[in-house]
Amino acid sequence: MPLDKVDLCELTWPELEKFVVETLCWKRFRAQQIWRWVWAGNVSDISSMTDLSLRDREQLAGSACIGRLRTADVRVSSDGTTKFLLQLGDGELIETVLIPSDAPQRPGDLTVRMTQCISTQVGCPMACSFCSTGKLGFRRNMTMGEIIGQVQAARAYLGDTRPERPIIRNLVYMGMGEPLLNLDAVLDSLKTLQHPHGLAFSPRRITVSTCGIQKGMREFGESGLAYLAVSLHAPNQQLREQLMPRASAWPLDELVASLEDYPLKARERITLEYLVIAGVNDQPEHVRQLARICSRLKAKLNLIPYNPTPGTAYRAPTPEELLRFEKALWQKDITAIVRKSKGQDIEAACGQLRAAHEAGVSRA
Ligand code: SAH
Q: Catalytic: 17?
């Protein structure tokens, strides 16, 4: 990408307005035109902005460009889960996954609906012991344009061109990286995704998942820009230190206390994510400890069966083990829902595809 040009995908709405007025010397309202093409229209080339005169397009192309991500690999699972390996401008690779929604649809409505899982960092500094991305280490934060670029790459692949009837209905910030450690770009991405002249995503269709970072949690909550999910994974401090050595620097009890005070909207609940690792965090004492935590919070518990990654000694629970754990939680009046693991045949868990790619075992 030419260094002297402004990448339109990296401008927030106020920045684009400023660019239109000060650099292009156009009327302010014309920012809407450009914004619509970049986000709703998903064009890759300024020459495609056909409601701008030829002269205006030439002027714009003289000082701006549109930085889209390159799709390096796409894999479609037998269950419809689709995983993309995308290349950023500097050659770094990140992952995003499309998951077909299970949500009940109206009779006769054959529309496919997808949830997209997006990344926020290249690699991750948190080094959780069960996570492939954690094993990569941290390389860098992703920019706002790169974060939303994942949605644009998936929309282009699906032919999802009408924001008023989107195929990608829900977004979860649960891909590579820790969103609260890249808070500014994450908040900008949420504002841009929700802007009415662009993709117009509702905050009720977006969830941001964190391993629990003290700095930023409050600011994120007060922004009201998305729901919060917290990766709990262990119901006591000692086990959490083993599974999530860095995240547990914020003691579990303090994390839970801050969730008690977290600003929730009407009818909103915090999602607690709990990776179920057989024999490690699914024992009767864990059920009791989880019950104590859940009794303090307005929360629901999502159980995620561990998706095995090479190089770790952990084991996924059998369906019977998972059901036993789930039933034990119900008996304690905990709303626990098992999230079916999808896309196992395409290495769809966090960081697995890039790891496989680097190990030279890509089957694409
Ligand atoms: N850093 C954020 C978001 C990225 S991880 C967070 O920790 O929430 C998103 C989710 O994927 C987390 O709940 C994480 O624990 C889960 N995950 C990571 N590795 C996994 C694996 N091998 N199997 C199943 N889920 C995994």
A: no
Which domains does the chain carry? 6-65 (1.10.150.530), 70-363 (3.20.20.70)
Whether the CB-CB separation of 353 and 346 falls below 8 Å is answered with yes
Q: How far is the CA of 126 from the centre of ligand 1 (A)?
A: 11
Which pair of structure tokens corresponds to residue 143? 């920019």
**Position of tokens 């770009």?**
185
Which residue among 220, 275, 280 is best mutated to probe the pocket of ligand 1, counting the most ligand atoms within 8 A of its Cβ? 275
Residue of minimum CA distance from atom 4 in ligand 1 = 174
Across-strand partners of 210? 230
Asked about 131 being catalytic, the answer comes back as: no
Which helix (H) or strand (E) segment holds residue 229: the answer is: strand 227-231
CA–CA separation, 322 and 279 (whole Å)? 11
CA pair distance 54, 62, nearest whole angstrom: 12
Long-range contacts of 195-199, Cβ-Cβ distance < 8 Å, separation of 24 or more: 195/13, 195/35, 195/39, 197/32, 197/35, 197/36, 197/39, 197/40, 198/35, 198/36, 198/38, 198/39, 198/40, 198/163, 199/39, 199/40, 199/151, 199/163, 199/166
- Note the pLDDT tens digit of each residue in 231-257: 999 999 999 999 999 999 999 999 999
Identify the residues whose C-beta falls under 6 Å from ligand 1: 130-131, 174, 178, 209-211, 231, 273, 275, 304, 306-307, 309, 349-350
Neighbours of 226 (CB within 10 A): 27
Locate all alpha helices (DSSP H) within 93-143, ordered by sequence: 132-136
pTM of the predicted model over 0.90 = yes
* pLDDT, tens digit, 9 for 90 and up, residues 28-58: 999 999 999 999 999 999 999 999 999 999 9
Cα(350) to ligand 1 centroid in Å equals 6
Kindly give the number of the ligand 1 atom that is closest to the alpha carbon of 230: 8
